[in-house]
Design goal:
It is a single chain. The protein contains twelve helices and 13 strands. By secondary structure, the chain is α+β, with helices and mostly antiparallel strands. It has four domains: about 1-120, no CATH class; about 145-205; about 205-235, no CATH class; about 245-305, no CATH class. The strands form five sheets. It has a four-stranded antiparallel sheet, with no helix packed on it. The chain has a three-stranded antiparallel sheet with strand order 6-5-7, with no helix packed on it. Strands 1-2 form a two-stranded antiparallel sheet. Strand 3 (about 150-155) and strand 4 form a beta hairpin. Helix 1 (about 5-20) runs parallel beside helix 7 (about 95-105) and helix 4 (about 50-60) crosses helix 7 (about 95-105). The chain is flat, with a radius of gyration of 32 Å.
């Protein structure tokens, strides 16, 4: 059995998108734009929404869905840009809440992602079909005699051609049939045991294929985990090796800020406070781009360490 992955989830959403382009909401999806996707989102949530969908909405927008809050949604039009380029095949989509919202927009039922990841692709076991030639059960041959006996069969479409087929005694036939059945029973039992073991392992020890910002660094987490640490606003996202190394640090005037005249510390303002990080990228909580530090920022904001 093969377990679904994050990439399988995105491919399934894209396939459903191709179907929906000729469906009832085709006018929104044939040539999607941020505004069209925003309006479609409002329509779908107004028509119906499950508890999972409402949770996806809250994770994506940062506030709860309520009928009549279309003005608030319109202010978030730019948040639909990654979904627009994802549907157009121009970019990939890595934000989990964005991927789940894309699933809602194309009405992909096997959502959210934690539900899809638990689904498995079942591979059926095909049993080998063995054909035997049955002889009269009243006739009993020894093994040596059986090796010498042959049945001559006339081929109906070619009477001149003769085919020699070995004949088995009833006892030998029964023994061989039972052996084949036992083989497949054993194989099936083994597969069930392995599937059970794998299911238990995934239940109690799920693979950590995502990451989440925790205080001042990223930690590996299960993609389907409902535990989101201290701040529920810290999204769970697929692992990005470069971002995984990002750390928030405290600095003073004595902190080494440059190496070979290049910045090795980056900064970003959050709630009127400057925060400092060890690498470039985006602020893990507000999504703003991190800027390389300059001597001006050091002189203006960083106090001398006495």
């Amino acid at each position: 059995m093969k377990k679904n992955t994050l990439e399988d989830y995105k491919e399934a959403i894209k396939a459903k998108y191709e179907e929906e382009k000729s469906g009832g909401y085709a006018s929104f999806l044939i040539n999607p734009s941020r505004a069209k996707l925003r309006d479609l989102c409002s329509i779908l949530f107004t028509e119906s929404s499950t508890s999972d969908d409402l949770r996806i909405f809250r994770n994506f927008f940062g506030f709860d869905f309520k009928e009549g809050n279309s003005t608030e949604i319109k202010k978030q039009t730019d948040k639909f840009r990654p979904l627009e380029t994802f549907f157009k095949g121009e970019t990939d989509l890595t934000d989990i809440s964005g991927i789940d919202l894309a699933a809602i927009l194309v009405r992909f039922n096997k959502r959210p992602i934690h539900r899809f990841l638990k689904l498995m692709n079942n591979t059926a076991v095909q049993e080998e079909k063995t054909t035997y030639s049955i002889v009269d059960k009243n006739v009993n041959f020894t093994f040596e005699e059986e090796e010498k006996k042959r049945t001559v069969v006339m081929i109906e479409d070619n009477p001149t051609k003769k085919t020699f087929i070995p004949r088995l005694t009833l006892q030998q036939l029964q023994h061989k049939t039972i052996s084949v059945q036992q083989f497949f029973k054993t194989l099936l039992l083994l597969m069930v045991s392995l599937a059970s073991f794998y299911g238990i392992k995934e239940l109690f020890f799920p693979a950590k294929e995502c990451m989440q910002w925790y205080s001042d660094h990223y930690e590996l987490v299960d993609c389907s985990s409902s535990v989101q640490g201290i701040s529920s606003r810290n999204e769970i996202k697929p692992i990005v090796k470069e971002e995984l190394q990002l750390k928030k640090i405290k600095v003073t005037q004595q902190t080494p800020f440059f190496q070979k005249n290049k910045a090795i510390v980056w900064y970003c303002k959050k709630n009127d406070t400057i925060e400092y990080f060890t690498a470039s990228g985006f602020h893990p909580e507000n999504g703003k781009p991190l800027k390389p530090i300059s001597q001006y920022i050091i002189d203006k904001y960083i106090k001398v360490d006495f």
